Amino acid sequence: MDNSGKFYITTPIYYVNARPHIGHAYTTVVCDTIARRQRMMGYDTWFLTGTDEHGQKIERSATAAGCTPKEFADKVSSEFRQLWDRMKLSYNDFIRTTEPRHIKGMQALFKRLQDRGYIYKGSYSGQYCVYDELYVDVTEPGAPCPECGRPTETIREENYFFKLSAMEEPLLRLYTENPDFVRPETRRNEVISFVRGGLRDLSVSRTTFTWGIPVPGDEKHVIYVWLDALANYITALGFGSDDPKDKAKLDRYWPADVHMIGKEIVRFHCVYWPAFLLAADIPLPKSIVAHGWLLFEENKMSKSRGNIVRTETILDTLGADTLRYFLMREIVFGSDGSFSFDALVQRFNSDLANGLGNLSSRTLSMITRYFDGEIPYPSLGARIPADHEIAELANKTISEFHAHFEQFQFSRALETGWGLVAAVNKYIVDNEPWAVAEKDDQDSRARLATILHTSAEALRIVTALVHPVIPESTARIWEQLGLGDIVKLDLRNLAWGQLPLHTKLGKVEAVFPRADKSTVERMQQMEQERSTASTTAIEAESTPPSPTQDTAQKAAVSAAATSPGVGASTITVDDFAKVDLRVGQIKVAEKVKGADKLLRLEVDLGTETRQIVAGIAKAYAPEKLIGRKVVIVANLAPRKLRGLESQGMIVAASIGDDGVPVLAGFLEDVPLGARLK
Ligand SMILES: [Zn+2]
């Protein structure tokens, strides 16, 4: 991170074909943490995020959902924004690629590339992957996409092309001369070998659909969605605008200091984006930093596996700071990390409740009790080596914390910070201030003051350091320390010995109440209800594995539910025969207590009656279902929902983005237990 006084950081803009989940939250939290810290380090910081809203996938999803692409994009984009606001993420700007400022800037960039001779018109015929929005190198019509395995479509069209082939040498020079341009090293090597393999010109317009930004002067073409998306990093600052205020902003913040991305979109950011900028003669970003994927209990997170974790579940139970701390502490930045509810609760209890929370509450409550809520004077004569050791460790922690953070080693930085927390908690136990307080003499009183002052000063330092990671709870601890608004703190000057004496503490209260054993179960239940309510009876298990961290285009979420023809790979007759689909009749239907989306059904299969818990309560009143014939998956492994065993699954269509269920049925009468094949 350099020293020019300004700092511009971006997340990828998130593709609105997928609803926000914890993977998106991870990228955004990392950026928010960096942005908050840079502000505290005195940088004029600009933090940009937003949504990517054009392309064929959105057009198709909107059609399937029965709305316009703009309505579809509006809805999902606002979900992202609401979630970020709920998490109090400190972004300065939120750009949408459907905004006029972006469209204008994008067209200006296209024109500039054309004027400089880097865009020409040509024709193309070949295989196209709708999912990846990419032309692919396969010859057979319908052959699987080498990127994602989905069937490709044959496309023949006249396109505008970008002279990517001319950029091979300049790009290789860029990577050699700026070793930090792509980070970490593994991604840099990947990019270099990709470019060394040879670059072909890139098609940058489409005529097969209309949901995009028109090519200036040739409106039947829309601009390639990746060029459109990447340009947000400059259009958000005002590229293409004539307004002097926008020009000043672009001058102030561009080039970006950090483009933060997931590793699956490295090629777009580290090859195409600098190529476009070089061709347009626009300064290059300083650094593109790729993080790993977030796995769920060792598996990739994807909707087809039904293991997407929704951020809301964690916010509802343990709060935003717990999620932030977990993501920054548990995942070694740059590598893949694993999420599980057990690990989350364990981290919360050990590091936050028992660690920082305990340090804070016992230090501050003893100061309240023994010194009437005023920071006491640490008498020089009463000091022992253990006090000095804490002071030294605190100063060492400050410099190590900064060093790790600058290297994006967030996990190690936090480990260092919690090393101090553990040391001070041990110091308190060893020095037994509660026992010292029992004695009435002058020396004991001075000793007590020193112990509590030392603890409070260490608490102040660790609170300041980790504020960018857990902003809400540290702001509360800061207020309890009587220090006012933590945001105003200048982190550059942080050192031991700055705690003002006789400061009056604020109201002391627990910041991290311990989470009990039921927390994990409660979160799992919330997740199950959320997914039961939003997926169809038959989950698309046939969807090929896709990236977990769908930071931009690579939506992990299968499009199968909303886009017919997209993402549906084939299965054999034998595969289908494994699913035992039967006709049944609903005999009992009732609401499930405490779950407004679930119904408990008893379904007669002719030979037996099954209890099935179905997420259809919002669409069907229980009394209307009695006597209705339905299709059930009879050989599904039983699972528990809200403590009730569900012995099978009801088949329903899922309509629109909200997945409104519509039960499958028959026009003719069918006997109970009949098998569908
Ligand atoms: Zn593909």
Write up what this structure looks like:
With 677 residues, this protein is an alpha/beta fold. It is 41% helix and 19% strand. The protein has 21 helices and 27 strands. Strands 1, 2, 3, 4, 8, 13 and 14 form a 7-stranded parallel sheet that branches. Strands 18, 19, 20, 21, 24 and 27 form a 6-stranded antiparallel sheet that branches. Helix 14 runs parallel beside helix 17 and helix 15 packs antiparallel against helix 17 (442-466). The longest helix is centred in the middle third of the chain and has 31 residues, at 341-371. The radius of gyration is 29 Å and the shape is flat. Residues 129, 131-132, 145, 147-148, 150 line the site of zinc ion.
The residue-averaged pLDDT reads: 88
Termini gap: 62 Å
Give me the Rg, rounded.
29 Å
The dominant shape is flat
What structural category do the secondary elements indicate?
A: alpha/beta
Low-confidence stretches: 535-569
- Give the % helix: 40-55%
**Alpha plus pi helix count:** 21
Bound molecules: zinc ion
Tell me the major beta sheet: 7 strands, parallel
The share of residues in extended strands comes to 15-25%
* DSSP strand tally: 27
